[in-house]
Design goal:
Layout: H1 8-22, E1 31-34, H2 39-51, E2 57-63, H3 69-84, E3 88-93, H4 96-99, H5 106-125, E4 129-131, H6 136-149, H7 153-156, E5 162-163, E6 166-167, H8 175-185, H9 201-216, H10 221-250, E7 251-252, E8 259-262, H11 263-266, H12 270-284, H13 292-301, E9 308-313, E10 316-320, E11 324-329, E12 343-345, E13 351-356, E14 359-372, E15 374-375, E16 379-383, E17 388-392, H14 393-398, H15 404-410, H16 414-417, E18 421-424, E19 429-431, E20 445-456
Parallel strand pairs: 1-2, 1-4, 2-3, 4-6
Antiparallel strand pairs: 5-6, 7-8, 8-11, 9-10, 10-11, 12-17, 13-14, 14-20, 15-16, 16-20, 17-18, 18-19
């Protein structure tokens, strides 16, 4: 028996409800719509045309270059569809197999490249939203996939209905309902033949595992999986909200690292709380979710006090030591000599500026009776009666003139901060741009001071 076709109002009302729940309906700005040409994304585009200003919709299609002729057919289909409906189109072709990172599967590479393309498209057209065509079937398959891989409460909650600017307006519809809608409107779509290949785990779950469970165990398995996600979602949101607070309290600005946290603060909520903060950062940066097994490995590493490294994906790592935990590029932790040589702040010059790696450091002499010596994060007032050098923390710690006690004070973060510049007289660290004075504080008043200011070229993933 076929599914009874609902009227347009039934479909549109459910999209409106999703928009109100996800928060995008009240902000009618530009929206990028990811359209592959399949039934899900084609139905998504038609429904959005009913509830959104078509002039503010931008169709985005990425030809992955994996299926050659049929992928070109899909791109042409989407192009013709956008033109016939009077919509703006952003079309791009790439060769995913040639762009795979070391150790990265084509499936994972295609996902990464696709999200990058959608984000770049949104930025180029000034769109506030990116709409994806995930359905209730995708949600159920994701929950089952996560259970098979091993997951916690976050995995049971499945696909988030919204993450930042990414929204999923048709997450409540089944794939069958969307196909019936298109048939009732006489709207065609194209089929990706790779969706029928069981070499991919997701396809095996959809084509083999779920039908097997429906035949032999429970015909309502999809409904029950969606129920699990519905129950788990508020608990997952609660955990994520707590992780956001801990992230806010514990984050530290550390030069050269993508993100850093104070270890003592991040662990105040326990090991599991620290893990959730790290996983939240991975989610924000669209990194591949960690399996339960790998989460357990990370959990054990967080207990260590000495230096450790954990590869997340590609060249992205989590690293930790006595006082710091950080997300960083693996190359920043390699045992390489610092590129920058030590630089001298000319004692005879009243003011000046020099570049050191990704830092720009300026200095200026000031004269003021009784002016206090102080150390800030990005500026410092230090005595003018010394000769100063700028070198890396690694170079400073390697110096024979540095006392053992002083080395112990700054050695706690030597791995994660070894390339950070320090202002020194070769015996003491007077100032570390982006940190301040650590525990090496200067006190007192001077008649003449050297004012230092530092600006860092920011890094992002």
């Amino acid at each position: 028996m076929g599914l009874k076709v609902k009227d347009d109002y039934w479909y549109i009302r459910r999209v409106v409800e999703a928009g109100e729940r996800q928060g995008w309906l009240k902000k009618p700005s530009k929206m990028v719509v990811a359209v592959s040409g399949g039934s899900d994304s084609t139905a998504l585009l038609w429904l959005l045309c009913q509830v959104w200003d078509p002039d503010k919709l931008v169709v985005a299609h990425l030809d992955h270059g994996i299926r050659k002729e049929t992928s070109r057919r899909d791109a042409m289909f989407v192009k013709n569809l956008a033109e016939s409906w009077g919509l703006d189109l952003k079309l791009q072709r790439v060769e995913v197999p040639k762009l795979c990172e070391k150790g990265e599967s084509i499936e994972v590479a295609a996902r990464r490249i696709r999200y990058d393309f959608l984000e770049e498209t949104a930025q180029s057209v000034g769109a506030e939203w990116i709409a994806l065509g995930h359905t209730a079937n995708d949600q159920a398959e994701t929950v089952l996939h996560n259970i098979i891989r091993g997951c916690g409460i976050k995995g049971l909650s499945g696909i988030p209905q919204r993450r930042g600017k990414i929204i999923r307006p048709i997450i409540d519809f089944s794939r069958r309902e969307l196909m019936e809608l298109l048939k009732s409107k006489g709207i065609e779509w194209v089929s990706d033949e790779t969706n029928e290949e069981t070499v991919y785990t997701r396809n095996k779950i959809r084509l083999d595992l779920i039908p097997y469970i429906e035949r032999n165990f429970n015909k309502q398995v999809i409904k029950h999986l969606l129920g699990i996600a519905e129950i788990a979602r508020p608990l997952s949101d609660l955990v994520e909200n707590q992780a956001s607070k801990v992230d806010l309290w514990s984050k530290r600005e550390v030069y050269g690292l993508l993100k850093a946290w104070d270890k003592d603060v991040i662990l105040k909520k326990g090991i599991d709380g620290a893990v959730e903060v790290i996983l939240l950062e991975g989610k924000r940066r669209n990194l591949r979710p960690l399996s339960r097994e790998r989460v357990l490995v990370l959990r054990e590493l967080l207990k260590k006090r000495n230096f450790w490294r954990f590869q997340w994906e590609k060249n992205i790592e989590i690293a930790g030591e006595r006082s710091l935990i950080a997300l960083c590029c693996g190359s920043d932790l390699e045992n390489k000599k610092t590129r920058e040589q030590e630089r001298i702040i000319p004692q005879g010059e009243e003011q000046g500026e020099l570049d050191w790696d990704r830092w720009s450091i300026s200095w200026k002499k000031i004269r003021h009776e009784g002016r206090k010596v102080k150390l800030g994060v990005f500026s410092a007032f230090i005595p003018c009666n010394n000769s100063y050098k700028i070198m890396s923390l690694e170079q400073f710690l390697a110096s024979r003139s540095v006392g053992k006690a002083l080395k112990e004070k700054v050695n706690i973060e030597k791995h994660l901060m070894k390339r950070r510049p320090v202002v020194t007289d070769e015996k003491s660290i007077f100032w570390i741009p982006g940190v301040g004075g650590l525990s090496l504080k200067i006190v007192g008043q001077e008649r003449e001071l050297l004012v230092l200011k530092a600006h860092e070229e920011r890094r992002s993933l």
